[in-house]
Design a protein that fits this description.
Elements: H1 4-11, E1 15-24, E2 27-37, E3 42-46, H2 53-60, E4 71-74, E5 77-78, H3 84-89, E6 92-95, H4 107-111, H5 113-116, H6 126-139, H7 155-168, E7 173-177, H8 185-200, E8 204-208, H9 212-218, E9 221-226, E10 229-235, H10 241-249, E11 267-276, E12 280-288, E13 292-296, H11 303-310, E14 318-323, E15 326-328, H12 333-339, E16 341-344, H13 348-352, H14 359-364, E17 372-373, E18 376-377, H15 379-392, H16 409-421, E19 427-431, H17 439-454, E20 458-462, H18 466-472, E21 475-480, E22 483-488, H19 495-503
Parallel strand pairs: 3-8, 3-9, 6-7, 7-8, 13-20, 13-21, 16-19, 19-20
Antiparallel strand pairs: 1-2, 1-4, 4-5, 9-10, 11-12, 11-14, 14-15, 17-18, 21-22
InterPro entries: AAA+_ATPase, ABC_carbohydrate_import_ATPase, ABC_transporter-like_ATP-bd, ABC_transporter-like_CS, P-loop_NTPase
Organism: Mycoplana azooxidifex
Pfam family, one: ABC_tran
Length: 504
């Protein structure tokens, strides 16, 4: 029989913060923020880039010390100032977007890393490390070869390794920062199932994600931040993606389809029976001037492999590619760029941009021939080119010479797009252009896409998020197991039917 004290114990938050203020260089990053999480709860922390989410997490994990007057209570214990050691001892675990794992070490060593560290050197017990790793993975219902180097595994498996490491740390609350940003839909579904299992076992999970559909699927409550201030805490029941978007940004966004009839426009790119062994087969389609052609599909559908082949990074085994009426067979991406094909990679951090380099250097990286004076780079031409595209794409920057890493994800992506627009392409391939970008910035990127298409640029928009291609493309190709399963007109089908076809 439950008692009144039992009810009070169950109702007590596991983590509670009140009056959190943080200031950096005169800028208030957090403004009197309150936040709480219940035991075993899946709680979403939502907000645009720069809203204060990461700063709040760093306060909770002891990285930052908030201004005087803050109140932090964990499991009924008041903590004047949390330190990283105190946070770990209490089971507060953070899984950052970059995972902070060691690629050269084995899966077992990554999972049991905390058991290897200490004040004094000692012999490593590899048998114990393997046992710890296997037990942690078993809790997640996952089987991996714990002796293999982590670098052998894809991002989805690395994400699981990071969660397993948190469990070894006797996690009571786990913060997941954009855990699905680089995952396909099927991988995301698996991760969300793991989150459900963690919650059922009593571990609280704070989920940070720009993918609002999964926020609604996984969370019980949503805390929304905007410009460092608390907007409110809301139950998921009755909440919609458009309502969350409005709360996060203070703006509403048009969710109507953009599809246009461009059948009268001349063909810019023609692909006929294109095949590459083990990746895709018999791919045929036409892309017209000013058209945005969407391509979607699950893991293994061959979307990115097709894009890399069109960009000259891989060679087809058979089939033909025709650009502006002329057959082409690119031996390299340099030849593709020279012919007028541009490709925005799905991996902005590793392949799209060079993080330590400046905004200006990143933007001109693919178009150096346009800023030469003789055989040397002209600083004046460079500044002019950068200024033009920064203004045209409304990129928010301080100085051109600032490192690209100083920009938000949305502004970094605009620079990445500008880098390829500066090459004056005929065809622009956008591979998952909104990965790691918040909802407000996403809308801005798709406004850019629509404007470019209106100006006559032929665009291939690749995404595993069906709503992105449904609302922003003129036609949608569904790829499945390396083949074209069907082609859809957004005006002639519903989003629900397209999602059912892709996710079936």
């Amino acid at each position: 029989m439950s008692t009144a004290s039992d009810e009070g114990e169950r109702a007590r938050p596991l983590l509670s913060l009140r009056g959190i203020n943080m200031t950096f260089g005169g800028v208030r990053a957090l403004k009197n923020v309150s936040f709480e999480v219940m035991p075993g709860e899946v709680h979403c922390l939502a907000g645009e880039n720069g809203s204060g989410k990461s700063t709040l997490i760093k306060v909770i994990s002891g990285v930052y010390k908030p201004a005087a007057g803050a109140e932090i209570v964990f499991d009924g214990e008041a903590i004047p100032h949390m330190t990283p050691g105190m946070a770990q001892a209490r089971g507060i675990q953070i899984i950052w977007q970059d995972l902070a794992l060691f690629a050269e070490m084995s899966v077992a060593e990554n999972i049991a890393f905390q058991t290897l560290s200490g004040a004094r050197p000692r012999l490593v017990n590899y048998a114990a490390i393997r046992r710890i790793a296997e037990e942690a993975l078993a809790r997640l219902g996952v089987s991996l070869d714990v002796d293999r180097p982590l670098k052998d595994y894809a991002i989805a498996q690395r994400q699981i390794v990071a969660i397993a490491r948190a469990l070894v740390g006797e996690a009571r609350i786990v913060f997941m920062d954009e855990p699905t940003a680089s995952l396909t839909q099927s991988e995301t579904d698996h991760l969300l199932a793991i989150v459900h299992n963690l919650s059922a076992s009593g571990v609280a999970v704070v989920f940070v994600s720009h993918r609002l559909a999964e926020v609604l699927e996984i969370s019980a409550r949503i805390t929304v931040l905007r410009d460092g201030a608390l907007v409110g805490v809301y139950p998921v029941e009755g909440m919609t993606q458009s309502k969350i978007t409005e709360l996060m940004t203070g703006r509403t966004f048009d969710q109507g389809t953009r599809a246009r009839d461009v059948s009268h426009n001349p063909v810019m790119l023609s692909v006929n029976n294109l095949s590459r062994s083990g990746e895709f087969s018999d791919i045929s389609f036409e892309l017209r001037r000013g058209e945005t052609l969407g391509i979607t599909g699950l893991l293994g559908s061959g979307r990115t492999e097709l894009a890399l082949t069109l960009f000259g990074m891989r060679r087809p085994a058979s089939g033909t590619i025709t650009l502006s009426g002329k057959p082409v067979r690119f031996a390299s991406n340099r030849e593709a760029i020279a012919a007028g094909v541009a490709y925005l990679s799905e991996d902005r951090l590793a392949l799209g941009l060079n993080q330590p380099q400046s905004i200006a250097d990143n933007l001109v990286m693919a178009s150096l021939n346009r800023i030469l004076s003789g055989r040397l780079i002209s600083p004046e031409k460079k500044r002019s080119l950068v200024a033009r595209w920064i203004a045209d794409l409304s990129v928010k920057i301080g100085r051109q010479d600032d490192a690209i890493s100083t920009l938000s994800g949305g502004n970094q992506q605009r620079v990445a797009i500008a880098k390829w627009l500066a090459t004056d392409p005929k065809v622009l391939i956008l591979d998952s252009p909104t990965v790691g970008v918040d909802v407000g910035a996403r809308a801005g990127i798709f406004e850019i896409v629509a404007r470019l298409a209106e100006a006559g640029l032929a665009i291939i928009l690749i995404s595993d998020e069906v709503p992105e291609v449904y609302f922003n493309a003129d036609r949608v190709i569904h790829m499945e197991k390396g083949r074209i399963a069907d082609v859809y007109d957004p005006h002639a089908t519903t989003l629900k039917d397209l999602e059912a076809a892709v996710y079936a």
